[in-house]
Amino acid sequence: LAKTTQPISMDSYEGQEVNITCSHNNIATNDYITWYQQFPSQGPRFIIQGYKTKVTNEVASLFIPADRKSSTLSLPRVSLSDTAVYYCLVGVAFMNRDDKIIFGKGTRLHILP
Amino acid sequence: GAVVSQHPSRVICKSGTSVKIECRSLDFQATTMFWYRQFPKQSLMLMATSNEGSKATYEQGVEKDKFLINHASLTLSTLTVTSAHPEDSSFYICSARIKKDRDYGYTFGSGTRLTVV
After folding, report:
1. Which helix (H) or strand (E) covers residue B5, if one does?
2. Whole-angstrom Cα distance, residue A38 to residue B93?
3. Fewer CB within 10 A of the end CB, N or C, for chain A?
């Protein structure tokens, strides 16, 4: 599993767009990039997954440059309820094997009023 | 959507007793489940991989005799913390891979807050 590096913490204000970047220099050809969100005393929740270029869903966008050595999770117009820890994971996900997920340290996002 | 139900959400037990945590897949079959523990302000640490009908695979440094895992059916995995001590107090989370009509990836239980007094 490729190692990931994220900022330990970030602060932002309500209504702003928040971008969290994850570095994964050793990403392999088969690896996907997945982001999870975790609120205090809850299990992680899937946000978005991508392989290359850009992926968008109702919650976030994921930008992946051509070299795939980094990725950026973009949260549009955040609210106080987006305060959480965000984990970037890189591995062979959604394939026909039960790969275990190893979590890095994550980014603690704090949204201010 | 596919849900993993984890119980109890909170438990307080006395030192030396055992505690069982259950994780059920509600509308899908989970041949493999994963157990994590998480200390305050830290990331999730994988403890073991639970395989239906076979022995669990433990990560390095995790005592298999202390953290007993049973995966007797395709919808239920249990983690028993035996002879619990205060240092076992933590947040325990299970996870399963969702394979239904297509592959949805991984889903997580809501976690169990264990406090050993």
Report:
1. strand B4-7
2. 12
3. C
Residue (of A105, A56, A92, A90) closest to B97 by Cα position: A92
Which of B39, B43, B46, B79 would you mutate first to test chain A, the one with the most A CBs within 10 A? B43
Under an 8 A CB cutoff, do A100 and B109 touch? no
Helix (H, G, I), strand (E, B) or coil at B97: strand
Token readout for B59 is 């990560």
Identify the band that residue A1 occupies on the pLDDT scale cut at 50, 70 and 90.
low
pLDDT in tens, B56-73: 999 999 999 999 999 988
Beta strands in B28-82 (DSSP E): 32-38, 45-51, 57-58, 67-73, 76-81
CA-wise closest residue to A47 among A16, A89, A101, A9: A89
Note which residues in 54-93 of chain A have CB less than 8 A from chain B. 87, 93
